[in-house]
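User: Fold this; tokens only.

Assistant: Input:
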Amino acid sequence: MKLGKQDPKEGEIRLTPENTEDLWHIERMLTPGDRVLAKTWRRYKAVEGDAGEKKAVTIKLLVEKVEFSPFANRLRVTGKILEGTPAEFVQQGSYHTIDIEQDFPVSIIKDRWMAHHMSRIKQAIAETKRPKLAMLVLDESKAIFATLRGYGVQYELELENNASKRDDKFDEKTSAFFGEILKKLQSLQVGRIIVAGPGFGKENLMKFIRQKDPKLAQKIVLEHCSYAERSGVNELLKKGVVSRVAGEERAENELVLMEKFNTELRKDSGLVAYGLEDVKNAVSASAVESLLVLDELLRNNKEIEAVVEEAEKRKVKLVIFSHESDGGRELSGYGGFAALLKFKMR
């Protein structure tokens, strides 16, 4: 993410997304009632009934709807036009959709920028500087690929090896299996790749890769995990492997915090709270150490936004969970709003 013009008086910040994660961060920041100013295209009809032609315009619209499509690498913002230029091509009050894409500068105007909005911008800028990271968990029969995104772990291809050790063509089939894995790894545009698994499959794969593509092998870090399943990827996150390899702590932090939350809940220690009323009371009592909130709630629930704002004034550590991550899905089971406490409330 690139940070451009900032106008505190007007509440305007100009941002340029540089990748899919940046588009996601912008989508998380936008709420109905915000204004968006950007260059776009609008169909202009000189005569009624004419097919018209697309004209390049600059439009400011009042945000009503935001749609993020990671696979299309695009963010669509829809709302009523407040103003625009050239004026002859823009009809004030009519609806328009701005497509925000990579390297597409956009100004966001808010009545009030909260601390968590600014933290998200800083996070997006920091993430841009980090190497992209992919993960592969495998054993002798299966391989699962995942990419770490700002919004969580994106699971991709899953390959199966049908070879049996009693099969005369075991070596041939395993070589073909490794060949498919190699082809996928070569297509990934990432800085580092974590390869992990429970047995010797990862070491055998590395020998194969070193022979076929020594340059790719330099990107790979071998680690251990207990299963060649999604649970194996989560295990890597919980162990701190990802932050050690690429300095990416977000997805790990979510799972570690939820594990701590669940442990205290099982112990009935009184050091956790969840749900709007209990968390609100804990914040008012200055009892909160860490406040855990689902990004969707923070965007759409004014009561929760007010509690978060009060917590920020009290210097509480705020952790915003992605609703698309495993940690976020776990938090949603507790209403999407929880807290780890410094002392008991009862």
